[in-house]
Amino acid sequence: MVLDRQGYDDLIMYLTQNLSLFEKSGEVAPDAPTVMELIEDVIAEHVMLICQQHTELDTEQRSQIVREVDGIVYDLQEVLSSVTNQPVTKEQREFIDEFAGLIKNLFDNAVARVSA
């Protein structure tokens, strides 16, 4: 659906261009989740939004989205392996929110292609 598309390659390139955000320390809130916890939570929220907004998706299509999102989270875990257990900084939180939104956009576009 999206993993084999140019948009996903571009998204990974965007991540690699912003890796410096994860190499430096910054302001951390006392109750900040880890980088990986935030990634999982934010991406899960976006997956739920995709499924809620696209009621035309059948069970197989929803399952495909979940499988691909699992692959994306795995890729993120691999790329960010050195910082996944560190508390997330404000700047990292902003980037993760933006990145998850871009993932949602990829799936929204893929659903539109399938539905057309």
Your description of this structure?
- It is a single chain.
- The chain is mainly alpha-helical and 116 residues long.
- The protein has one domain (6-20, 33-115).
- The protein is built from four helices and no strands.
- Helix 1 (6-17) runs antiparallel to helix 4.
- The longest helix is centred in the C-terminal third of the chain and has 26 residues, at 90-115.
- It is elongated.
- The chain starts with 5 loop residues before the first helix and ends with a helix.
- The model has no long low-confidence stretch (mean pLDDT 94).
Overview features:
about 120 residues, mainly alpha, elongated
Mean pLDDT comes to 94
Oligomeric organization of the protein chains: single chain
Domain count, please report it: 1
**Helical amount among residues, as a percent range?**
55-70%
Instruction: List unreliable stretches of 5+ residues.
Output: none
Instruction: Provide the β-strand percentage band.
Output: under 5%
Over all CA atoms, what is the radius of gyration? 15 Å
How many E-type strands? 0
Order of helices and strands: HHHH
Instruction: Please tally the helical runs, counting DSSP H or I stretches of 4 or more residues.
Output: 4
Keywords: Isomerase
InterPro entries: Uncharacterised_A0KLC6 (IPR020979)
Pfam family, one: DUF3802
Protein name: DUF3802 domain-containing protein
List the helices and strands and how they pair.
Elements: H1 6-17, H2 35-53, H3 59-79, H4 90-115
Brief account:
The chain is an all-alpha fold and 116 residues long.
